């Protein structure tokens, strides 16, 4: 904080650390000398803004990335205090924020853009190639060949749709705008539907084992059926693609009356995941031993589970593979959205 003449009258420890000078040495100095902020083109920010002699209607400046010569970039906000409208400035309050968090966010955004561009290129190239071939040489292919090409186009279009859905969900999760539209759902039936889809796509039915699905009474669960399908599809696909052996699933009631929930467990018999990686599994861009996909799926899964008021964890299955367990609160919600 500087007074009406520009001399520093207050500085906190964090600001002193960012400037790189002890608070005791900053007090009484001209803020324009003690904090020689510069624009990216080298011009003095103080000369450009001039809080004390500038427009009498200004109340400050929004956050801006500036440079402290000899140090690093810093995010700066400014507020001009006047005793009355259009009166001279009596105090200038400058807020300083380390730009490291912003650089990390920009790096994450760059990584996300790079990942998405890479993941989109392959299916779009396939869609473009097969559709162009069919348009130009339709009469040269048999019906079976045409069907195969169209099935490939459909599968790749679905892949792009899933990727776009992931991106939208990440945006909603990060901004706290993710909504779930709850209604009564049969979790066991939802798992069985996914098993049938895997079987229809060529997997052997004996590879899937759903226990406790019909011989245990389950409490009523309210959830968003589409979001539940997303959660199950991601976890089951991971177990099928990256695991090995039988994919075991169970749905069991947990908790006490009045605080009931169901726990869904999905495990495989593969190599599993090393314990030191457990804290990173539900973060962005995590990949296991076999890379593939965006590395965003489990990040979205955690966000969807938590949006329902549940929890998700990972561990080692009894058969040695990875075991994912998530919970969903049971009982009728007070407010169905």
Structural write-up:
This protein is an alpha+beta fold. The protein folds into 3 domains: 13-98, Beta-Lactamase (2-Layer Sandwich); 102-175, Helix Hairpins; 183-329, Histidine kinase-like ATPase, C-terminal domain (Heat Shock Protein 90, 2-Layer Sandwich), CATH 3.30.565.10. 40% of the residues lie in helices and 20% in strands. It has a 5-stranded mixed sheet. It has a 3-stranded antiparallel sheet with strand order 1-2-3. A two-stranded antiparallel sheet has the order 4-6. A hairpin with a 5-residue loop joins strand 9 and strand 10. The longest helix is centred in the middle third of the chain and has 38 residues, at 100-137. The protein is elongated, with a radius of gyration of 29 Å. The chain starts with 12 loop residues before the first helix and ends in an 8-residue tail after the last strand. The mean pLDDT is 86.
Summarize the entry for a quick read.
This protein has 337 residues and is α+β, with helices and mostly antiparallel strands. Helices cover 40% and strands 20% of the residues.
Rg over CA atoms, rounded to whole Å, is: 29 Å
Q: How would you sum up the global shape?
A: elongated
Which percent band covers the strand fraction? 15-25%
What's the CATH topology name of the largest domain?
Answer: Heat Shock Protein 90
State the strand order across the main sheet: 5-7-8-10-9
Oligomer: single chain
The SS-based structural class is alpha+beta
Query: How much helix, percentage-wise, in residues?
Result: 25-40%
CATH architecture field of the largest domain: 2-Layer Sandwich
How is the biggest beta sheet arranged? 5 strands, mixed
The CATH superfamily label of the largest domain reads Histidine kinase-like ATPase, C-terminal domain
Q: DSSP helix count?
A: 9
The residue ranges in which pLDDT falls below 50 over 5 or more consecutive positions are none
Order of helices and strands: HHHHEEEHHEHEEHEEHEE
